[in-house]
Amino acid sequence: MLSPCMNMHFHSEHRSGAIGQFSPAESISGKIRVLGYLCKAFQTTVMLNTRVGPTFHVSIRKQNGVSNLSVRFHRTRPTNHYDEDVRPLDAKLVELIAARKTVSNNNPGFPPNADIDMWAQKFGLYETFVHSVFTTLYNEEIHRPRVEPQGFRRVIPVMRLKETDSQVFLVTHLRQYDNASVLYLEIDSKSENQSEPTHRPHVQWNLTIGPEYDCYSTSGSGNSDHFSQQFVVSPCLPDKVENLVFKFKWSSRMPNAEDGSQGQVIL
């Protein structure tokens, strides 16, 4: 039995059609990133279909000067059949997923392929199927409900700077909303050193402020000399942020990166 193939479609007021297909092994977060690029290219909504699992509607919306990647999940049961005998086992699966998060302090990582192959062979399952299960667990964060900024209030200058040997990191300002803040990070190159994260073609930036704040990155753009990244923070940050620490973590988006590229900048 083959893994389901993911089909891409675009649709707008005037046209719709198929774009292509994803490999089943491609991570969900990778699919959504590609769909985001397609949204910008077509200036429309892109939909990801699969024969099983959720359908993703991905769109780019610009509101109050902020470009937001919107992902909507439509939960559709692939069949109405359910064997009641497996209900206790399914409840146990959910319990084990929660326990896995607790034991690892919500950072379990991803098991080596050799372990996945061994477990699949031991229990008579397909290696790609077991891999896809762990991929889904790894991408849990994309299912977190995301707050979209509403009710613009004011702009707060921050101008917090950190220099390294080859780069300058600058938090320029916040845009304050009723329910969230949008933080702006600017990164400038000081040299032709191509080894730092800004110059990597596949780098994911994340912001951490504290357990009381939920942060996610939105639009980002730039080149080898300058890069801009925006983050949405909820609830809204205070107007005075002198006592807050902004921890920017970066990591390679390439799933098979051998250099373990990752690091952080604290401002």
What does this structure look like?
The protein contains four helices and 13 strands. It has helices at residues 28-42, 87-103, 113-123, 127-138; strands at 6-11, 16-22, 45-49, 55-63, 66-74, 152-163, 167-177, 181-189, 203-208, 214-222, 226-234, 247-252, 262-266. The N and C termini lie far apart (51 Å).
For the secondary structure, the number of strands is 13
Note the beta-strand portion: 35-45%
Spatial order of strands in the largest sheet: 2-1-3-4-5
How far do the termini sit from each other?
51 Å
The DSSP helix count reads: 4
Percent helix? 10-25%
Order of helices and strands: EEHEEEHHHEEEEEEEE
Radius of gyration from CA coordinates? 21 Å
Estimated structural class = alpha+beta
Main β-sheet description: 5 strands, antiparallel
| Overall mean confidence score, pLDDT | 75
Topology:
Elements: E1 6-11, E2 16-22, H1 28-42, E3 45-49, E4 55-63, E5 66-74, H2 87-103, H3 113-123, H4 127-138, E6 152-163, E7 167-177, E8 181-189, E9 203-208, E10 214-222, E11 226-234, E12 247-252, E13 262-266
Antiparallel strand pairs: 1-2, 1-3, 3-4, 4-5, 6-7, 7-8, 8-11, 9-12, 10-11, 12-13
